[in-house]
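Take a careful look at the protein record below. Let me know whether the structure tokens fit the sequence:
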Amino acid sequence: MVFCPMPKTIRVDENLVREAQRLGGHSSKRAAVEEALREYVQRRRQSEIIQFFGRIDYARDYAYKASRRRK
């Protein structure tokens, strides 16, 4: 994990952070905020991928399960 130098303090809704801590079972505010940011990034990446549904051509006769079998 790479940490970048940032200000030590930012203004965040305290009630929101406490709620995130409680829901996530996090022992610290930092852990709750980091997890929230990870989830945010993951959701944004997923929404970028969703735009490709139904647009990617594929071979209908491709047996993807066959390629998973061990030899």
About this structure: The chain is about 45% helix and 0% strand. Residues 14-54 form one domain. The chain has a mean pLDDT of 86. The longest helix spans residues 29-50.
